[in-house]
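# step 3/5: fold
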Amino acid sequence: MAENQENQGTMALLKKIMIEDVPSYANKIYYSLGFLSATCFILLVLSGIVLVAGGPAWWLTNPWGIYFRSVHLWSTQAFVLFIFLHLLIVFLTYAYRKPRQLTWVLGGLMLFLVLMEAEFGYILRGDFSSQWRSLQASDLYNGSGLGTVVNNLNYTQIYGIHIAILPLALILLLGFHYFLVRMRGIAKPHTEKIQVHTVKAKHALLFTRGIVLTVVILLLATVFKSPLIEPVTIQYVASHDPELMAQTLASELDHSSDTATYSDNIDPYRYDTRAVYIAAPYQQYIQSQKGALNQWNVFQREPSDLQAKQVAAANDYFTNNGSLTLNPVNGNPLVPVISSLVYMAQSGLYEDSLRAQNSNGLNPSYAIRFLSDTGVLDDQAQSLGITTEQYGMIREESGHIPPGAWWLLPVGWMDHTF
Protein backbone atom coordinates (compact mmCIF):
# COMPACT_ATOMS: atom_id res chain seq x y z
CA MET A 1 0.00 0.00 0.00
CA ALA A 2 2.71 2.42 1.02
CA GLU A 3 4.76 1.44 -2.03
CA ASN A 4 1.83 2.16 -4.34
CA GLN A 5 1.33 5.57 -2.76
CA GLU A 6 5.04 6.31 -3.19
CA ASN A 7 4.90 5.33 -6.87
CA GLN A 8 1.81 7.45 -7.39
CA GLY A 9 3.57 10.38 -5.72
CA THR A 10 6.59 9.94 -7.99
CA MET A 11 4.39 9.81 -11.08
CA ALA A 12 2.53 12.92 -9.99
CA LEU A 13 5.83 14.76 -9.48
CA LEU A 14 7.08 13.69 -12.92
CA LYS A 15 3.84 14.90 -14.51
CA LYS A 16 4.38 18.31 -12.93
CA ILE A 17 7.95 18.45 -14.19
CA MET A 18 7.59 16.89 -17.64
CA ILE A 19 5.66 18.35 -20.56
CA GLU A 20 2.58 16.20 -21.16
CA ASP A 21 0.97 17.51 -24.35
CA VAL A 22 3.17 18.30 -27.34
CA PRO A 23 2.85 18.82 -31.11
CA SER A 24 3.04 15.51 -32.96
CA TYR A 25 6.52 16.24 -34.33
CA ALA A 26 7.94 16.83 -30.83
CA ASN A 27 8.43 13.10 -30.23
CA LYS A 28 11.00 12.91 -33.03
CA ILE A 29 14.61 12.53 -31.99
CA TYR A 30 15.72 15.98 -33.10
CA TYR A 31 13.37 17.41 -30.50
CA SER A 32 15.13 15.30 -27.86
CA LEU A 33 18.46 17.06 -28.29
CA GLY A 34 17.96 19.33 -25.29
CA PHE A 35 17.16 16.30 -23.12
CA LEU A 36 20.20 14.44 -24.46
CA SER A 37 22.36 17.48 -23.66
CA ALA A 38 21.03 17.41 -20.10
CA THR A 39 21.80 13.66 -19.94
CA CYS A 40 25.42 14.39 -20.86
CA PHE A 41 25.56 17.14 -18.23
CA ILE A 42 24.38 14.69 -15.55
CA LEU A 43 27.10 12.24 -16.63
CA LEU A 44 29.66 15.03 -16.43
CA VAL A 45 28.58 15.98 -12.91
CA LEU A 46 28.61 12.37 -11.68
CA SER A 47 31.95 11.45 -13.27
CA GLY A 48 33.38 14.79 -12.12
CA ILE A 49 32.41 14.08 -8.51
CA VAL A 50 34.19 10.71 -8.73
CA LEU A 51 37.30 12.35 -10.22
CA VAL A 52 37.39 15.05 -7.54
CA ALA A 53 37.05 12.40 -4.84
CA GLY A 54 39.90 10.36 -6.31
CA GLY A 55 42.24 13.26 -7.02
CA PRO A 56 44.77 13.86 -9.84
CA ALA A 57 47.12 11.00 -8.92
CA TRP A 58 44.19 8.55 -9.04
CA TRP A 59 42.73 9.69 -12.37
CA LEU A 60 46.21 9.71 -13.97
CA THR A 61 47.44 6.28 -12.83
CA ASN A 62 44.63 4.08 -11.49
CA PRO A 63 42.76 1.99 -14.15
CA TRP A 64 39.39 3.06 -12.75
CA GLY A 65 40.57 6.65 -12.54
CA ILE A 66 41.62 6.53 -16.19
CA TYR A 67 38.22 5.08 -17.09
CA PHE A 68 36.28 7.80 -15.29
CA ARG A 69 38.55 10.41 -16.86
CA SER A 70 37.65 8.92 -20.23
CA VAL A 71 33.92 8.95 -19.39
CA HIS A 72 34.28 12.62 -18.47
CA LEU A 73 36.00 13.39 -21.77
CA TRP A 74 33.45 11.55 -23.95
CA SER A 75 30.58 13.13 -22.01
CA THR A 76 32.12 16.51 -22.80
CA GLN A 77 32.35 15.68 -26.50
CA ALA A 78 28.71 14.56 -26.58
CA PHE A 79 27.52 17.48 -24.44
CA VAL A 80 28.97 20.10 -26.77
CA LEU A 81 27.79 18.22 -29.87
CA PHE A 82 24.17 18.00 -28.71
CA ILE A 83 24.10 21.62 -27.57
CA PHE A 84 25.28 22.73 -31.02
CA LEU A 85 22.68 20.51 -32.71
CA HIS A 86 19.95 21.69 -30.33
CA LEU A 87 20.67 25.35 -31.06
CA LEU A 88 20.81 24.60 -34.78
CA ILE A 89 17.37 22.93 -34.76
CA VAL A 90 15.92 25.81 -32.73
CA PHE A 91 17.33 28.26 -35.27
CA LEU A 92 16.16 26.34 -38.36
CA THR A 93 12.63 25.90 -36.99
CA TYR A 94 12.29 29.57 -35.98
CA ALA A 95 11.72 28.48 -32.38
CA TYR A 96 13.59 31.53 -31.10
CA ARG A 97 10.77 33.95 -31.99
CA LYS A 98 8.41 35.61 -29.55
CA PRO A 99 7.76 34.75 -26.81
CA ARG A 100 10.88 32.53 -26.62
CA GLN A 101 13.69 35.03 -27.13
CA LEU A 102 14.89 34.71 -23.51
CA THR A 103 14.97 30.91 -23.80
CA TRP A 104 17.20 31.26 -26.88
CA VAL A 105 19.49 33.78 -25.17
CA LEU A 106 19.87 31.48 -22.15
CA GLY A 107 20.80 28.62 -24.48
CA GLY A 108 23.46 30.74 -26.17
CA LEU A 109 24.86 31.81 -22.80
CA MET A 110 24.99 28.18 -21.66
CA LEU A 111 26.93 27.26 -24.81
CA PHE A 112 29.50 29.96 -24.03
CA LEU A 113 29.89 28.72 -20.45
CA VAL A 114 30.13 25.10 -21.63
CA LEU A 115 33.00 25.97 -23.99
CA MET A 116 34.80 27.74 -21.13
CA GLU A 117 34.18 24.76 -18.87
CA ALA A 118 35.51 22.33 -21.47
CA GLU A 119 38.69 24.30 -22.06
CA PHE A 120 39.35 24.60 -18.32
CA GLY A 121 38.86 20.84 -18.08
CA TYR A 122 41.64 20.27 -20.60
CA ILE A 123 43.92 22.45 -18.48
CA LEU A 124 43.23 20.29 -15.42
CA ARG A 125 43.81 16.91 -17.04
CA GLY A 126 47.38 16.73 -15.75
CA ASP A 127 49.37 15.80 -18.85
CA PHE A 128 51.51 17.63 -21.40
CA SER A 129 48.42 18.76 -23.29
CA SER A 130 47.30 20.55 -20.12
CA GLN A 131 50.61 22.36 -19.83
CA TRP A 132 50.61 23.42 -23.46
CA ARG A 133 46.97 24.47 -23.68
CA SER A 134 47.17 26.52 -20.49
CA LEU A 135 50.26 28.31 -21.77
CA GLN A 136 48.76 29.04 -25.19
CA ALA A 137 45.39 30.15 -23.83
CA SER A 138 47.04 32.48 -21.33
CA ASP A 139 48.06 34.77 -24.19
CA LEU A 140 44.42 34.98 -25.26
CA TYR A 141 43.32 35.93 -21.75
CA ASN A 142 46.15 38.40 -21.29
CA GLY A 143 45.65 40.05 -24.66
CA SER A 144 41.91 40.44 -24.02
CA GLY A 145 42.49 41.92 -20.57
CA LEU A 146 40.95 38.96 -18.72
CA GLY A 147 44.33 37.80 -17.44
CA THR A 148 44.07 40.08 -14.43
CA VAL A 149 41.07 38.00 -13.31
CA VAL A 150 41.80 34.53 -14.70
CA ASN A 151 45.32 33.12 -14.68
CA ASN A 152 45.23 30.06 -16.91
CA LEU A 153 48.48 28.79 -15.41
CA ASN A 154 47.08 28.80 -11.86
CA TYR A 155 45.88 25.21 -11.43
CA THR A 156 44.09 25.89 -8.16
CA GLN A 157 42.13 28.83 -9.50
CA ILE A 158 41.08 26.96 -12.65
CA TYR A 159 40.18 23.91 -10.54
CA GLY A 160 37.81 25.97 -8.40
CA ILE A 161 36.21 27.61 -11.43
CA HIS A 162 35.80 24.27 -13.21
CA ILE A 163 34.28 22.21 -10.40
CA ALA A 164 32.27 24.88 -8.57
CA ILE A 165 31.60 28.24 -10.19
CA LEU A 166 30.79 27.25 -13.77
CA PRO A 167 28.81 24.08 -12.91
CA LEU A 168 26.63 26.02 -10.47
CA ALA A 169 26.06 28.72 -13.09
CA LEU A 170 25.13 26.06 -15.65
CA ILE A 171 22.72 24.35 -13.27
CA LEU A 172 20.94 27.64 -12.59
CA LEU A 173 20.74 28.53 -16.28
CA LEU A 174 19.63 25.03 -17.22
CA GLY A 175 16.90 25.11 -14.58
CA PHE A 176 15.63 28.50 -15.71
CA HIS A 177 15.88 27.45 -19.37
CA TYR A 178 13.75 24.36 -18.79
CA PHE A 179 11.28 26.31 -16.63
CA LEU A 180 10.62 28.63 -19.57
CA VAL A 181 10.21 25.68 -21.94
CA ARG A 182 7.86 23.99 -19.44
CA MET A 183 5.75 27.11 -19.07
CA ARG A 184 5.50 27.91 -22.78
CA GLY A 185 5.52 24.43 -24.23
CA ILE A 186 7.11 23.19 -27.44
CA ALA A 187 7.27 25.85 -30.18
CA LYS A 188 4.50 25.68 -32.76
CA PRO A 189 5.22 25.84 -36.53
CA HIS A 190 6.37 29.23 -37.75
CA THR A 191 3.21 29.69 -39.83
CA GLU A 192 -0.44 28.96 -39.06
CA LYS A 193 -0.82 27.31 -42.46
CA ILE A 194 0.96 24.26 -41.06
CA GLN A 195 -1.55 22.27 -39.00
CA VAL A 196 -0.33 19.73 -36.47
CA HIS A 197 -2.07 17.51 -33.95
CA THR A 198 -1.41 17.68 -30.23
CA VAL A 199 -0.39 14.32 -28.78
CA LYS A 200 0.93 12.90 -25.53
CA ALA A 201 4.66 13.17 -25.05
CA LYS A 202 6.42 9.78 -25.23
CA HIS A 203 8.42 10.03 -22.02
CA ALA A 204 9.44 6.37 -22.09
CA LEU A 205 10.96 6.86 -25.54
CA LEU A 206 12.73 10.00 -24.36
CA PHE A 207 14.33 8.22 -21.41
CA THR A 208 15.23 5.25 -23.61
CA ARG A 209 17.19 7.59 -25.86
CA GLY A 210 18.97 8.97 -22.80
CA ILE A 211 19.86 5.47 -21.61
CA VAL A 212 21.17 4.48 -25.05
CA LEU A 213 23.33 7.62 -25.16
CA THR A 214 24.70 6.84 -21.70
CA VAL A 215 25.60 3.29 -22.73
CA VAL A 216 27.32 4.55 -25.89
CA ILE A 217 29.42 7.04 -23.89
CA LEU A 218 30.40 4.35 -21.37
CA LEU A 219 31.42 2.00 -24.18
CA LEU A 220 33.42 4.69 -25.99
CA ALA A 221 35.25 5.43 -22.74
CA THR A 222 36.14 1.73 -22.52
CA VAL A 223 37.49 1.49 -26.07
CA PHE A 224 39.01 4.96 -26.57
CA LYS A 225 40.82 6.11 -23.45
CA SER A 226 41.47 9.75 -22.69
CA PRO A 227 44.91 10.58 -24.20
CA LEU A 228 47.76 11.00 -21.75
CA ILE A 229 51.33 12.05 -22.52
CA GLU A 230 53.63 12.63 -19.59
CA PRO A 231 54.02 16.29 -18.61
CA VAL A 232 57.41 17.95 -18.95
CA THR A 233 59.21 18.76 -15.71
CA ILE A 234 62.13 21.01 -14.88
CA GLN A 235 63.89 17.98 -13.41
CA TYR A 236 63.62 16.25 -16.81
CA VAL A 237 65.10 19.27 -18.61
CA ALA A 238 67.97 19.62 -16.12
CA SER A 239 68.79 15.89 -16.25
CA HIS A 240 68.64 15.50 -20.05
CA ASP A 241 70.04 18.87 -21.09
CA PRO A 242 71.91 20.58 -18.23
CA GLU A 243 73.45 23.09 -20.67
CA LEU A 244 69.97 24.27 -21.69
CA MET A 245 68.96 24.49 -18.04
CA ALA A 246 72.00 26.64 -17.26
CA GLN A 247 71.42 28.87 -20.30
CA THR A 248 67.80 29.44 -19.28
CA LEU A 249 68.82 30.31 -15.73
CA ALA A 250 71.35 32.79 -17.14
CA SER A 251 68.58 34.42 -19.21
CA GLU A 252 66.42 34.73 -16.10
CA LEU A 253 69.39 36.28 -14.33
CA ASP A 254 69.95 39.02 -16.91
CA HIS A 255 66.21 39.53 -17.59
CA SER A 256 66.41 38.47 -21.25
CA SER A 257 64.07 35.44 -21.09
CA ASP A 258 60.59 35.35 -22.64
CA THR A 259 59.03 35.71 -19.19
CA ALA A 260 61.25 38.64 -18.24
CA THR A 261 60.41 40.44 -21.48
CA TYR A 262 56.77 39.32 -21.69
CA SER A 263 54.42 42.14 -22.61
CA ASP A 264 50.77 42.23 -23.58
CA ASN A 265 47.77 44.45 -22.97
CA ILE A 266 48.17 43.38 -19.37
CA ASP A 267 50.99 41.48 -17.74
CA PRO A 268 50.16 39.00 -14.97
CA TYR A 269 53.79 37.83 -14.96
CA ARG A 270 55.23 41.09 -13.74
CA TYR A 271 57.74 39.68 -11.31
CA ASP A 272 61.51 39.81 -11.06
CA THR A 273 62.78 36.63 -12.70
CA ARG A 274 66.14 37.08 -11.01
CA ALA A 275 64.49 37.03 -7.59
CA VAL A 276 62.13 34.13 -8.35
CA TYR A 277 64.35 31.85 -10.43
CA ILE A 278 67.80 32.60 -8.98
CA ALA A 279 67.90 34.26 -5.57
CA ALA A 280 65.12 32.42 -3.71
CA PRO A 281 65.96 28.86 -4.88
CA TYR A 282 69.68 29.41 -4.32
CA GLN A 283 69.09 30.58 -0.73
CA GLN A 284 67.16 27.35 -0.14
CA TYR A 285 69.96 25.35 -1.75
CA ILE A 286 72.73 26.97 0.28
CA GLN A 287 70.87 26.31 3.53
CA SER A 288 71.11 22.59 2.79
CA GLN A 289 74.85 22.80 2.20
CA LYS A 290 76.47 23.04 5.60
CA GLY A 291 79.48 25.36 5.61
CA ALA A 292 79.27 26.19 1.87
CA LEU A 293 80.11 29.75 0.85
CA ASN A 294 77.04 31.74 -0.18
CA GLN A 295 78.15 32.93 -3.62
CA TRP A 296 74.94 34.93 -4.10
CA ASN A 297 75.81 37.04 -1.07
CA VAL A 298 79.27 37.55 -2.52
CA PHE A 299 77.67 38.80 -5.74
CA GLN A 300 75.28 41.06 -3.85
CA ARG A 301 78.19 42.81 -2.10
CA GLU A 302 79.90 43.70 -5.38
CA PRO A 303 79.60 47.27 -6.81
CA SER A 304 76.70 47.66 -9.25
CA ASP A 305 78.96 48.16 -12.29
CA LEU A 306 80.86 44.97 -11.49
CA GLN A 307 77.58 43.10 -10.94
CA ALA A 308 76.44 44.08 -14.44
CA LYS A 309 79.71 42.78 -15.92
CA GLN A 310 79.43 39.50 -13.97
CA VAL A 311 75.84 38.96 -15.13
CA ALA A 312 76.89 39.47 -18.76
CA ALA A 313 79.95 37.24 -18.29
CA ALA A 314 77.87 34.44 -16.74
CA ASN A 315 75.42 34.62 -19.63
CA ASP A 316 78.24 34.42 -22.17
CA TYR A 317 79.85 31.53 -20.28
CA PHE A 318 76.77 29.31 -20.30
CA THR A 319 75.62 30.40 -23.76
CA ASN A 320 78.94 29.04 -25.01
CA ASN A 321 78.27 25.73 -23.17
CA GLY A 322 80.58 26.40 -20.27
CA SER A 323 80.85 23.42 -17.91
CA LEU A 324 79.05 23.31 -14.58
CA THR A 325 81.29 24.05 -11.63
CA LEU A 326 80.83 25.01 -8.01
CA ASN A 327 83.92 27.21 -8.16
CA PRO A 328 83.95 30.78 -9.50
CA VAL A 329 85.22 31.17 -13.07
CA ASN A 330 87.44 34.25 -13.52
CA GLY A 331 86.27 35.33 -10.09
CA ASN A 332 82.59 35.32 -11.15
CA PRO A 333 80.41 34.03 -8.26
CA LEU A 334 77.38 33.68 -10.55
CA VAL A 335 78.84 30.63 -12.31
CA PRO A 336 78.66 28.43 -9.17
CA VAL A 337 75.25 29.92 -8.32
CA ILE A 338 73.78 28.80 -11.66
CA SER A 339 75.63 25.47 -11.53
CA SER A 340 74.21 24.81 -8.06
CA LEU A 341 70.68 25.49 -9.30
CA VAL A 342 71.16 23.02 -12.17
CA TYR A 343 72.19 20.33 -9.67
CA MET A 344 69.24 21.33 -7.49
CA ALA A 345 66.90 20.96 -10.48
CA GLN A 346 68.29 17.52 -11.28
CA SER A 347 67.24 16.40 -7.81
CA GLY A 348 63.71 17.73 -8.30
CA LEU A 349 63.96 20.34 -5.54
CA TYR A 350 64.18 23.37 -7.82
CA GLU A 351 60.63 23.05 -9.15
CA ASP A 352 59.41 22.47 -5.58
CA SER A 353 61.06 25.75 -4.62
CA LEU A 354 59.26 27.61 -7.41
CA ARG A 355 55.92 26.16 -6.39
CA ALA A 356 56.55 27.02 -2.73
CA GLN A 357 57.08 30.67 -3.71
CA ASN A 358 53.73 30.75 -5.51
CA SER A 359 50.76 30.43 -3.15
CA ASN A 360 52.44 27.79 -0.99
CA GLY A 361 52.80 25.28 -3.81
CA LEU A 362 49.26 25.55 -5.14
CA ASN A 363 50.07 27.71 -8.16
CA PRO A 364 52.49 26.29 -10.79
CA SER A 365 52.68 29.50 -12.83
CA TYR A 366 56.39 30.11 -12.10
CA ALA A 367 57.31 26.54 -13.08
CA ILE A 368 55.32 26.55 -16.33
CA ARG A 369 56.70 29.93 -17.36
CA PHE A 370 60.25 28.67 -16.72
CA LEU A 371 59.58 25.55 -18.81
CA SER A 372 58.27 27.82 -21.55
CA ASP A 373 61.50 29.84 -21.41
CA THR A 374 63.55 26.69 -22.03
CA GLY A 375 61.75 26.12 -25.35
CA VAL A 376 61.22 22.44 -24.52
CA LEU A 377 57.42 22.82 -24.44
CA ASP A 378 57.44 24.22 -27.98
CA ASP A 379 59.62 21.37 -29.24
CA GLN A 380 57.39 18.75 -27.61
CA ALA A 381 54.22 20.35 -28.99
CA GLN A 382 55.77 20.50 -32.47
CA SER A 383 56.60 16.79 -32.35
CA LEU A 384 53.03 15.98 -31.27
CA GLY A 385 51.46 18.16 -33.95
CA ILE A 386 49.59 20.48 -31.59
CA THR A 387 51.20 23.88 -32.14
CA THR A 388 49.14 26.84 -33.39
CA GLU A 389 50.28 26.41 -37.00
CA GLN A 390 49.23 22.75 -36.73
CA TYR A 391 45.73 23.70 -35.49
CA GLY A 392 46.87 22.50 -32.10
CA MET A 393 44.00 23.82 -29.94
CA ILE A 394 41.46 21.72 -31.86
CA ARG A 395 43.42 18.47 -31.80
CA GLU A 396 44.51 15.89 -29.31
CA GLU A 397 47.97 14.43 -29.62
CA SER A 398 48.48 12.78 -33.02
CA GLY A 399 46.80 9.40 -33.45
CA HIS A 400 44.35 9.73 -30.55
CA ILE A 401 40.56 9.66 -30.44
CA PRO A 402 38.46 11.75 -29.72
CA PRO A 403 39.62 14.65 -31.91
CA GLY A 404 40.19 17.26 -29.21
CA ALA A 405 38.23 20.50 -28.95
CA TRP A 406 36.83 20.37 -32.49
CA TRP A 407 34.37 23.14 -31.54
CA LEU A 408 37.30 25.60 -31.50
CA LEU A 409 37.89 25.12 -35.23
CA PRO A 410 36.97 28.75 -36.09
CA VAL A 411 39.39 30.04 -33.45
CA GLY A 412 42.09 27.67 -34.68
CA TRP A 413 41.54 28.80 -38.25
CA MET A 414 41.91 32.45 -37.27
CA ASP A 415 45.04 31.72 -35.19
CA HIS A 416 46.56 29.79 -38.07
CA THR A 417 45.69 32.38 -40.70
CA PHE A 418 46.30 35.68 -38.96
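# step 4/5: annotate
The chain is about 65% helix and 0% strand.
# step 5/5: archive (pending)
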